[in-house]
């Protein structure tokens, strides 16, 4: 089980025409995805990508493959000189359509299976795939854009790591964010340390990881981790308003975020080395630790099913 390589996906999606918007006549925002919803608002120059899973909203290979297609489409169509390409995409926003949840993180059942079977290679492969996507998020897919995470519910573990990788983290007040991996004797190994230490420094980042506390969006706004705090239900409208108000200063704002990447770069090699530490640490977990991991997955699945039932009533 693995994501297709970027080369393979490019060959599938962009056969010989890198700047082609449609493949077989299907625009990117009309394709039949199973785990995401996408929308390109060309007037506001915003591309929206919403995770939309029916099971436990976690980072599965299938979700990752669809997100990677979007990343590659943006890179192929917009990673060109400022004067040489279309100017209908300046902001990329990643959110979630799962009620009350942004994303709950790693595929815990897959982890438990790998740990029990002593499959270190599979753990490394999963983690490497995730951090390559994180690195792409952190670098705007090589395109001249500003990226945003829109957190409208719980962003836990890898879900929080994912949100940290974007230029701007927007959260609604009821959102909860945290890194609970310490409860089963592991640590978040797919970007949390790298991105947190650059936002809040070593001591706060390490305490955050080792305490495993779940924080409110307002607490993290006060810490400087959440960049924009909005009232519940107003996240999308707030982003549209932000993008419209700041169109005239877009070049300068993007330059600031590019400068951030220059002064405090998150290199792919750094992320990969940490994933190796994570995978090797996972192999030391006891059976009791793995059972805690599975119980957490069970609880999260029950919660999501309850939420979906409430929405359908």
Task: Describe this entry's structure for a reader.
The protein has 313 residues and is α/β, with parallel strands linked by helices. It has a single domain, classed as Alpha-Beta Complex (2-enoyl-CoA Hydratase, Chain A, domain 1), CATH 3.90.226. The protein has helices spanning 6-13, 61-78, 108-116, 120-138, 158-164, 192-200, 202-211, 217-223, 235-245, 250-263, 268-282, 287-312; strands spanning 36-41, 46-51, 91-96, 101-103, 146-151, 154-156, 168-172, 176-178, 214-216, 228-230. The strands form two sheets. Strands 1-2-3-5-7-10 form a six-stranded mixed beta sheet, sandwiched between helices. Strands 4-6-8-9 form a four-stranded mixed beta sheet. Strand 2 (46-51), helix 2 and strand 3 (91-96) form a beta-alpha-beta unit. Helix 1 (6-13) crosses helix 2 and helix 2 packs parallel to helix 4 (120-138). It is globular. The protein starts with 5 loop residues before the first helix and ends with a helix. The relative contact order is 0.13. The model is unreliable at 1-25 (pLDDT under 50).
Summarize the structure.
The chain is of the alpha/beta class and 313 residues long.
Key traits:
six-stranded mixed sheet, 313 residues, 2-enoyl-CoA Hydratase, Chain A, domain 1, alpha/beta, globular
Order of helices and strands: HEEHEEHHEEHEEHHEHEHHHH
CATH class: Alpha Beta
Largest sheet, order of strands side by side? Answer: 1-2-3-5-7-10
Largest sheet: 6 strands, mixed
Strand content: 5-15%
Portion of residues in helices?
40-55%
CATH architecture descriptor: Alpha-Beta Complex
**At the third CATH level, what is the topology name?**
2-enoyl-CoA Hydratase, Chain A, domain 1
Number of strands: 10
Mean pLDDT: 89
Shape: globular
Computed over alpha carbons, the radius of gyration is: 19 Å
Total domain count:
1
CATH superfamily: 2-enoyl-CoA Hydratase, Chain A, domain 1
Total helical elements = 12
Low-confidence spans: 1-25
Helix/strand/pairing category: alpha/beta
Distance between the termini: 36 Å
């Amino acid at each position: 089980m693995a994501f297709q390589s970027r080369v393979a996906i490019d060959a599938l999606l962009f056969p010989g025409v890198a700047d082609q918007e449609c493949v077989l006549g299907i625009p990117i925002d009309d394709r039949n995805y199973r785990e995401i919803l996408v929308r390109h608002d060309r007037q506001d120059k915003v591309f929206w990508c919403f995770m939309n899973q029916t099971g436990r909203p976690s980072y599965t290979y299938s979700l990752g493959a669809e997100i990677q297609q979007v990343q590659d489409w943006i890179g192929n169509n917009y990673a060109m000189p400022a004067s040489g390409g279309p100017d209908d995409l300046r902001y990329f926003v990643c959110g979630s359509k799962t009620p009350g949840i942004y994303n709950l993180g790693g595929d815990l059942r897959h982890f438990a299976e790998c740990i029990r079977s002593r499959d270190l290679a599979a753990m490394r492969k999963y983690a490497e795939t995730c951090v390559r996507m994180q690195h792409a998020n952190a670098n705007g897919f090589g395109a001249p854009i500003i990226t945003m995470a829109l957190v409208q519910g719980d962003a836990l573990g890898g879900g929080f790591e994912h949100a940290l990788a974007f230029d701007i983290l927007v959260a609604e007040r009821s959102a909860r964010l945290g890194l609970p991996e310490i409860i089963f004797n592991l640590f978040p190994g797919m970007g949390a340390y790298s991105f947190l230490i650059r936002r809040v420094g070593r001591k706060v980042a390490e305490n955050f990881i080792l305490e495993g506390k779940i924080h409110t969006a307002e607490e993290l706004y006060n810490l400087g981790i959440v960049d924009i705090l909005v009232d519940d239900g107003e996240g999308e409208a707030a982003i549209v308003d932000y993008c419209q108000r700041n169109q005239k200063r877009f070049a300068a704002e993007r330059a600031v975020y590019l400068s951030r990447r220059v002064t405090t770069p998150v290199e792919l090699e750094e992320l990969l080395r940490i994933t190796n530490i994570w995978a090797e640490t996972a192999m030391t977990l006891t059976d009791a630790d793995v059972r805690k991991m599975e119980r957490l997955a069970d609880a999260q699945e029950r919660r999501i099913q309850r939420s979906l039932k409430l929405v359908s009533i």
